[in-house]
Prior knowledge:
alpha/beta, 2 domains, six-stranded parallel beta sheet, 24% strand, globular, binds 6-O-phosphono-beta-D-glucopyranose
Amino acid sequence: MSSNRRTLVILGASGDLTARLLLPGLGQLLASQPDLQIDLIGVGGVPMTDAVWRRRVTSSFKAGAASGARLTALIASSRYFEADATNPDELEKIFAACTGIPALYFALPPAVTEKVCATLSKMKLPSGLVLALEKPFGTDLPSARALNRLLATFIPERQVHRVDHFLGKSTVLNILGLRFANRLFEQSWNASNIERVEISYDESLGLEGRAGYYDHAGALIDMIQSHLLQVLAAIAMEPPSTLDSDDLRGAMAQALRATRIWQGKAAAGSRRARYTAGTIDGKKLGAYLKEPGVDAARGTETLAELVLSVDNWRWAGVPFVLRSGKALEDSRKDIVITFRPVPHLPTGMTGTSVPTQLRISLDPHMMHLDLNINGEGDPFSLDNVTLSATFADSTMGAYGEVLEGILRGDPTLSVRGDVAEECWRIVTPVLAAWHRDAVAMETYPAGSAGPRSWKRLPIG
Ligand code: BG6
């Protein structure tokens, strides 16, 4: 086995995630990083010939706009195994087929991931083995803890990559540059100057045939427990000394350890809703409850909103509002940082002073800074202006960034074990309040901005 070569083994290779996100990301990564030596093996529960698998890889690479002789060679040597990855003999065979150090990518539901890890814990493993675990990591706090404990019995933490593709999004990475390379922002990045922080990820997409997964997760687990809490950590963390994985992930972990539901009141600090039939971009979308595979008894929400506090010196008293939902009108995906009003506006200054807002958009990748300046004509009258800039796109998408870390053995852009537990700890009281129906399930027509009655969450 060559020490530079890695074999990416995708468990769950016949699934949607592999075709739609992972393989396009891999194609982009390999096209932009010529030094990476990679082989690819697909493993799935359904029968498929190598030829069919290679055709699938080819079309996914095309979807990621990645091509070249190197990718053609990789496709030609790629193999598919129909196997039950919970069976040690079948895993042995897969390891034996690896020409490089294996990186096992679990594109599998959490329950199957846990079983495969239990099997691995009893096997003799190839040296340097890397594990990449898709979200959600566990299904609740106890299962995430148990999975972390199990992993610690057979593999070092640095070789475990808990995947959160938001950590590979160029805008999230740009938060670091914006905050830590501009004296202007970092000096005022605190409760004395900032009134509130809102992180929203509204999508116009509906369920898209994902009931098997989504109906067990819902918006809170699908988007907030994982992705948006990572964004919160990037906004709230203390400046790390370096971008080394220990420093960066340590700073994010510290911020998340201080994070909890606003005033400890899970019912008052959270809302949930589910879409009914409606129209999005001129297309009709049926009600969530009518989607095939959805079970009304599960009480799954398609829109979730939480108010959190980060209880430390820097952020005491500043609400962090996290919201995400599906089938929404205006796909607002941004981080809005609202600064406090100035302590005194010179008497005689007319016009409206709007609060200074920094808006970091996750899609498109842009930033806007709303300011008050003296307007045209009367020099003592205020006008509002917006300074905008586009963030440079990275050469690859978020999955390419995350895969690079996995294949180079650098865990900086993956979630550390304790952080995965913290994220579950933060949402646990909310899940419990929702479970006991302490928060009403509201509805909104698909294509609307959410329930009509929703204004800002009352923050007392
Ligand atoms: C995934 C969620 O992790 O992130 C999806 O499971 C969601 O429900 C997606 O649509 C959003 O991320 P992106 O990068 O596709 O906008």
